[in-house]
Structure formats: structure tokens, C-alpha cells
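Q: Could you fold this chain for me?
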Amino acid sequence: MTDLSAAESARLHQLITCEYPSTISAAAAAGEACVWCSGPLGVDAVGLDTRDPRIGCGSCYGGRRAWYTTWYDWHRHVRRCVPCQQARVCHVGSGLRSLHEITRESAGKVDPSYCVSCHHPVHAGELVVPVRWEGTTQDHLGYGHTQCLMSRATVR
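A: Sure. Below is the predicted structure, expressed as C-alpha cells.
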């Protein structure tokens, strides 16, 4: 995975901490348990926000950090790789996707992924690229079948 600068690490921390369940246990709300798994906090626990007591355990936080880092590594490659953008096989892109998919479970991503264009599930053997789009309050990260996105001007 990519080594991150201090500014990139801070931005990544913001991305990780903005995503947690809408309902959390009383212990998690009080900062006595992990907001994601409701498990006990260890010495590697991470404070999510300085304004409230919510804390994530090191395992959950690390899983989410790995998910975001591998997604952005894959996205950075696709932005510069013509074969990936043209729905051709690219072994580097496939490897980066595989690394990213390994992080799904530890990041709490249990729901299937869907193509942002056709809204069908993304399956393991399909040519897929990471897609980022800007929302009104935050960026959204997703996936798109390369064939679906070919009709668009770029895969960015």
C-alpha cells in the first residue's frame, strides 16, 4: 500500500471517521466500546472525533484504513492506465483490485458492490474500475463495469 503524507493521513482519517453505524450501543456512544463492532477497546483504539467520545478499536479502524488506501491505490492506477480505461485486461489493475477486495470484510463492507452505471452487482470475474463522484457533503467511492462506463467521456 501507499505511504501517506501527514496531510493525506489526516484526510484519510476524516474519511474513515465519517462512516459509522447510525445506531450504536450506549457503551460505544460513551466511548467505552468500538463504534463499529461494539467490542472492547484496546491500547490501539483510535479517537474518531475530538468533539465527542466515539472511539474505534484498532482492528476496525485498521480494516477501514486498508480499504480506503487500497481503493485509492487502485483508482490512481486506473486514472493513468489506458488498458484499464478501455476495458482491456491489465494485470497491475487486476492485482490492485484483488488487494482491495481482500480488505472488504475487515472494513465491514459486507453488502455486495453495485455498478454505479447499470446498478447490477459487481462480480469477481468482471472488468471493473473504481469510481469516485462528488456529493453535496462528501465524496462517494464506488465501482463501475468498464463496459458500462465506456459510453462516458472518461473513467474518473
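A (continued): DSSP finds six helices and four strands in the chain.
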